[in-house]
């Protein structure tokens, strides 16, 4: 007797890792429990999140973007919650489309819950190593208002930055001050982030060079967060007195994350561009019934 199989791939961008579920016609009912099962690092495949690949025309949340972007990134955090955007995810999503022969190196558009994001897949290097992927991440929003992040008995002022999803960015002297980041740090006032928040702790590494640790909403501490790194870049630029929209000059920062390095720039029109690696490490199948078994 043959059992129905579901295809998956595993990939990462600076070690922010994802289970990729190709579901081009939008036929899979991916419940929060199914996502949590896939992402479980002991009983499942293990990942920080899931990227379901659906044709925009086949998904009610993406149909309106179908003329601009053929593919919709249905992103979920490892606890099953839905998020608007995932920066590392877009690069890995682009790599999946390339590997599947659905796009070539060059430009493509990806529909997300935060809107259409444009990406560029660089050509492979001379030794065949996959080229980096650059994503135009849209403009950062910097809502007014004081935000405070507390870990243990220490508190820091934080900058509220929205990159399509919410972030609190704070500067520390030592990344160890973030403590154990599996649990969400306390962020106040509570109404600053009605839907929860990703929290980035940042240290300086040199001129236009910072490093971060992150607690991701719905996933805990991860090795990287692309939207978080972009939020950090913008918050650091403003702290350093740089604002391309005012100065008329682009500004670029190197942002180190525990899982690697991202290069992020802000252009005079306010657009943030992120460049980094995207890797597929495995592919396979599982019994479809496993996702729903009790
Ligand atoms: N890892 C992602 C962000 C994923 C979503 C985030 N946890 C949220 O809930 O907003 C990235 O690379 O941007």
Automatic annotation (TrEMBL):
It catalyses: (2S,6S)-2,6-diaminopimelate = meso-2,6-diaminopimelate. The record marks 167, 216 as: Could be important to modulate the pK values of the two catalytic cysteine residues. The active site is at 86, 86 (proton donor), 225 (proton acceptor). GO terms for biological process: lysine biosynthetic process via diaminopimelate. Its main location: cytoplasm. It is found in: Cytoplasm. Substrate binds at residues 16, 77, 87-88, 165, 198, 216-217, 226-227. One of its GO terms (molecular function) is diaminopimelate epimerase activity. It holds the Pfam family DAP_epimerase. Keywords: Amino-acid biosynthesis, Cytoplasm, Isomerase, Lysine biosynthesis. It is an enzyme of class 5 (isomerase). Its EC number is 5.1.1.7. Pathway: Amino-acid biosynthesis; L-lysine biosynthesis via DAP pathway; DL-2,6-diaminopimelate from LL-2,6-diaminopimelate: step 1/1. The keyword Amino-acid biosynthesis applies. InterPro entries: DAP_epimerase_AS (IPR018510), DAP_epimerase_DapF (IPR001653). Gene3D superfamilies: Diaminopimelate Epimerase, Chain A, domain 1. GO terms for cellular component: cytosol. Homodimer. Catalyzes the stereoinversion of LL-2,6-diaminopimelate (L,L-DAP) to meso-diaminopimelate (meso-DAP), a precursor of L-lysine and an essential component of the bacterial peptidoglycan. Belongs to the diaminopimelate epimerase family. This is Diaminopimelate epimerase. It comes from Streptomyces mobaraensis (Streptoverticillium mobaraense). The lineage of its organism: Bacteria, Bacillati, Actinomycetota, Actinomycetes, Kitasatosporales.
């Amino acid at each position: 007797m043959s059992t129905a199989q579901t295809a998956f791939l595993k990939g990462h961008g600076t070690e922010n890792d994802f289970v990729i579920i190709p579901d081009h016609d939008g036929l899979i009912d991916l419940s929060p429990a199914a996502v949590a099962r896939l992402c479980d690092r002991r009983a499942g495949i293990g990942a920080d999140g899931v990227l379901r690949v659906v044709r925009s025309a086949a998904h009610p949340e993406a149909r309106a973007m179908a003329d601009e972007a053929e593919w919709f990134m249905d992103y979920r955090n490892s606890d099953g919650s839905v998020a608007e955007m995932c920066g590392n995810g877009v690069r890995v999503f682009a790599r999946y489309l390339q590997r599947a022969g659905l796009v070539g190196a060059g430009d493509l558009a990806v529909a997300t819950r935060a809107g259409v994001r444009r990406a560029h897949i660089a050509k492979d290097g001379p030794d065949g190593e996959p080229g980096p992927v650059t994503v135009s991440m849209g403009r950062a929003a910097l809502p007014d208002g004081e935000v405070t992040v507390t870990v243990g008995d220490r508190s820091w002022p934080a900058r509220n930055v929205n990159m399509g999803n919410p972030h609190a960015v704070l500067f520390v002297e030592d990344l160890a001050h973030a403590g154990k980041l599996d649990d969400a740090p306390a962020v106040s006032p509570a109404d600053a982030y009605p839907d929860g928040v990703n929290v980035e702790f940042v240290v300086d590494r040199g001129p236009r060079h910072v490093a971060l640790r992150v607690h991701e909403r719905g996933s805990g501490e991860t090795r990287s967060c692309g939207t978080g790194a972009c939020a950090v870049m913008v918050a650091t630029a403003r702290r350093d007195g740089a604002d391309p929209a005012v100065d008329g000059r682009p500004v670029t920062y190197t942002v180190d994350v525990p899982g690697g390095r991202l290069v992020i720039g802000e252009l005079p029109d306010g657009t943030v561009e992120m460049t980094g690696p995207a890797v597929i490490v495995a592919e396979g199948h599982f019994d479809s019934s496993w996702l729903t078994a009790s």
